[in-house]
Amino acid sequence: MTQTDPAPLPADLLPADCPVPSVPVLGSRKWAWRIIRCLEDGPRRFSELRVPLAGITAKVLAESLRSMEQDGVLVRTEFDENPPRVEYALTPLGRTLLGPMDAMCAWSRENLAGLLAARAEHERGH
Fold it and tell me: Which UniProt keywords apply (predicted)?
């Protein structure tokens, strides 16, 4: 059996107009996916989000929420009450991420054991 070299990769394999590298919510923000999942069933207050996100500091949560709001993934609503009340909710754009998240979770459930076994095997070999 002879091995043939694959064709060279074309220069335009990763086109300049492909938006994937600039979509920050898809993974470059550690807490974004978890925050989205927390908001799946409706609006939540900052203090409510802190409960399931126990490992996050208040500063990082605030920064994450602010950046996700800038991306149009969630909306921050201030209520004119005393004491002041603020809620965060997914936007329609943010809700479009739930399907891909479900698919990634299903993939993880099916393949995590194999992935971890491959990783362990690799570590043993090095």
Answer: DNA-binding, Transcription, Transcription regulation
